[in-house]
From TrEMBL, chains A, B:
Keyword annotations from UniProtKB, A to Z: DNA-binding, Transcription, Transcription regulation
Gene3D superfamilies with a match to the protein in the record: 3.40.50.2300, lambda repressor-like DNA-binding domains
Keyword DNA-binding: yes
Top-level taxon in the UniProt lineage: Bacteria
Stated name of the protein: LacI family transcriptional regulator
Organism in which the protein naturally occurs: Paenibacillus faecis
Length: 338, 338
DNA sequence: TTGTAGGCGTTATCAG
DNA sequence: CTGATAACGCCTACAA
């Protein structure tokens, strides 16, 4: 058994209440008693039991986070951003993985409630009404990161990046560089933020420049290398008029696409330019180095946790329902001017 | 306030003890009462407060893990392996990042004690006597993952891969493929497991084949792309007799090395073969695809958490102090036979 | 098989 | 400023 507040009180010859006060700095305690208590605490290496404490204060200093897959660099960076803030605030992070499965997500929402976390950060794929309902009935504040709710975007606080605008900017960049025949390798169609929204940004940019494109220019992958490869292959095979540029909706698919082109003896960027998305670290290790749109997932995590803290501490100032972290086009080699 | 065991008891017209019994299946309860209680629990969506429970049972079903950086794919995979097991056992994971700083590591060890975790998994860099001492004085079981303690390897249970043997095998593989002039790009010299041990494996293999190598063939990086690049540059510049192969101690440095060689117009693998270490996912996306030694960090995490569970539950069977996860040479393109 | 009551380690509310 | 003492929500002897 570890040492309790009572042991300290006894040894310092004061009441437990006094000990509690010096621990929490909650009320004035005479300097001499304070010193006496602190000395004993020091000596006995006393640490208050956070369970007992949580039981009564109703807060645990634990933040929960639900991500599809922690080994995915995107969520790794996100988590690191979150953690950096938590650590400095004396909070600790409970990480849960959903595998992207909705029922698992629901379950985890409950698990975190069990653990009495003070709040949770949720990074899912499709935040639909079922999920939103589940979130509402938990007792804790929650903020979405990385994607907005498909079921009405003003229901839950969310921190993400502007997917429409980001892809719009990326495609505009391609257009500015002389490209007109621009193909698109997107995410799953049921992925609200990273799928549908990015497609929307693509369409918007084309429309604005009165560019029309055959349907065979648009393919949907699942963000994996292989799917990028396959999508590129389809585009290649189904179009006699090849595109001069491809907007791939993440770096991994972009690299898969480049790989296919390499096997097809199509040179990047000489023949076809490729634009990625995310700006993962290894994008610049490749050759050709990947031109891409950078999303700082670290910053996104940071902003999300800050928002969650405001919610937790009932910060008065109005908190916008959805906040964006800026994106940025990173010019490297895989896109060229024509 | 959420619903308590007392509310349930009242509504089901039984005592709290009975409710507790059906929750925990701890003692026989007549079927009818059981049903009545369960119905109410269901209806009221009751979840026992894990703080209160932990306070008395002295266990939280929380496992702590300390890693240098969660956004590093190696620790991401490790964590995923750990989490996969925890989830199925109803445990939850608390992730802490140390940034590789020793004082932070010590602090985190304490934080996790505060949180009353049932055990912790520790992935550090240099587990020296100070750290070991700190570990011993915490109340929880602990197992090292990824590297052994530099301060005596039989002090703390550890699950890792055999760094000496792995590099020994990799270098032997190079030798079998006709290479004799083999350079080495290693980790930091103060890194016990991933630095010193891998170097040892390299030396062992060379010695066994009576191969001597100039000191200028050996460089120490820090596992980053840039350091791989720099080390390769030094080797290139300081040796008129270039090596025909280089053993890089992780994939990222291997890729950095390849990048340098590309700028120096040295072809891989035609002129120089490169061997990596880790087998990160993106190693096979590169060209040339990386030949490397695969360590399954997922499996390593899994084995570590299983070991920790044995410790936690005082499993009788003897648990070996240090366990290895197998490694495997993955033949791809970056190494060729000469 | 069921219920009563004490206690886990803190904090918070009162008096003093 | 300090000290009893009642919660917090649950588990577990002990009794019935």
């Amino acid at each position: 058994m570890s040492v309790t507040i009572e042991d300290i009180a006894k040894e310092a010859q004061v009441s437990v209440a006094t000990v509690s006060r010096v621990i929490n700095n909650s009320k004035a305690v005479s300097p001499e008693l304070k010193k006496r208590v602190n000395d004993v605490i020091q000596k006995r290496n006393f640490k208050p039991n956070s369970l007992a404490r949580g039981l009564i204060t109703n807060q645990t200093n634990i933040i929960g986070i639900i991500v599809p897959d922690i080994s995915n660099p995107v969520f790794g960076a996100l988590t690191r951003g979150i953690n950096s803030f938590c650590q400095q605030k004396g909070y600790t992070l409970m990480v849960c993985e959903s595998g992207g499965q909705q029922e698992k997500e629901v379950e985890l929402l409950g698990v975190l409630a069990d653990k009495k976390v003070d709040g949770v950060l949720f990074a899912g794929v499709d935040v639909n009404s079922a999920l939103v309902g589940e979130m509402k009935r938990q007792g804790y504040p929650i903020v979405l990161v990385t994607q907005e709710a498909s079921e009405g975007e003003d229901i839950i606080h969310t921190v993400t990046h502007d997917n429409v605008k980001a892809v719009y900017d990326a495609v505009s960049f391609l257009i500015e560089n002389g490209h007109q025949k621009i193909a698109f390798i997107g995410g799953p169609e049921n992925d609200y933020s990273s799928g549908q929204k990015r497609l929307k940004g693509y369409r918007l940019a084309l429309k604005e420049h009165n560019i029309e494109v055959p349907v065979s220019y648009i393919e949907h992958g699942n963000f994996s290398f292989d799917s990028g490869y396959d999508c590129m292959r389809k585009i290649y095979e189904e179009n006699s008029a090849l595109p001069t540029a491809v907007m791939a909706c993440n770096d991994v698919m972009a690299i898969g696409a480049i790989r296919f082109l390499k096997t097809a003896k199509v040179s990047v960027p000489a023949d076809i330019s490729i634009m990625g998305f995310d700006d993962l670290e290894f994008g610049k290790y490749f050759s050709p180095e990947l031109t891409t749109v950078r999303i700082s997932y670290f910053d996104e995590g940071l902003k999300a946790i800050k928002t969650l803290f405001k919610l937790i501490h009932h910060n008065q100032q109005a908190i916008p329902k959805t906040q964006f972290v800026p994106h940025k086009i990173i010019r490297r080699i895989s896109v060229r001017k024509i």
